[in-house]
Amino acid sequence: MMNRNIINEIEKLSKRPKLFEKGTGNIWTEPYISTQMLKAHLDYKSDRASRNIEKVKKTVTFLKETTNKGEGILDLGCGPGLYAEEFCRNGYKVTGIDFSSNSINYAKESANKQGLNIEYRCEDMFNINYNEKYDTVIQVFGEVNTFSDENRNKLFDKVKNALKPGGLFIFDVSTPVHRRKNGLNKNWYVSDCGFWRGEAHIVFEEGFEYSDNIWLDQFIVIDNEEIKVYRNWFHEYTLNTIKEIVLENGFSKVNVLNGLYSKEVEEDSEWLTVIAAK
Ligand SMILES: C[S@@+](CC[C@H](N)C(=O)[O-])C[C@H]1O[C@@H](n2cnc3c(N)ncnc32)[C@H](O)[C@@H]1O
Asked: Does the pLDDT of residue 68 top 70, yes or no?
């Protein structure tokens, strides 16, 4: 039977949290969930945790032709190394950083098996301290959307330090058009084994909208042992907002494209690629 404490806890957690308030769980670093995420990354046909493998290849070819920069690339939030491997095959010298040990262990093994010389580090990207080492820094699949303004600006500073003069920071962000397509969910279910837990659990899912194009997808997960809340924050950007923010953060030039391998930004673009020069 559920006792009063559990009900109070669920009630407390289901209230609309403060902007960018952290949850108590982490989908990228918890052993069980990060194994599920790794499976999603490696589902080469889907666009869930990573884009599908054809898009990965097209992106790397496009970035190679567009940027025409030197060979040193830093991939922040590299996951299992799909882009890192493709850049390496195209002659780049790649460093991949991710704080998911599951993904980094997989990436190291995969590179070894294929004889690809990639440096992988299991590290929080907010702790990196490189000084003018890289020609290009990339961050793929909307990670910038998930940061508070303060953390985003902190990361931009780290990236600027890591870039050589004139080096490029290339990242993609989703737009409010993308978010509106997905909408806000309010749902609950019971499962014996699923994405959140390998044992019986209940999930309460709820979406919240905030001002300034910020959204939260919140999941309260209850199992035999504990109640945890997972919060996925998304700050969606438009062409104008992201340009302004990049320039305010001290990059000298910025070009914004539609998606990761085409050119014109349209009114209904769901993804923007930002190419910012130091
Ligand atoms: C949406 S996935 C994209 C992975 C990869 N870029 C791709 O497209 O295949 C985001 C990745 O960023 C990593 N990540 C998130 N926050 C991080 C942090 N603070 N430091 C290092 N890695 C982080 C996650 O572990 C995850 O692998």
From this structure: no
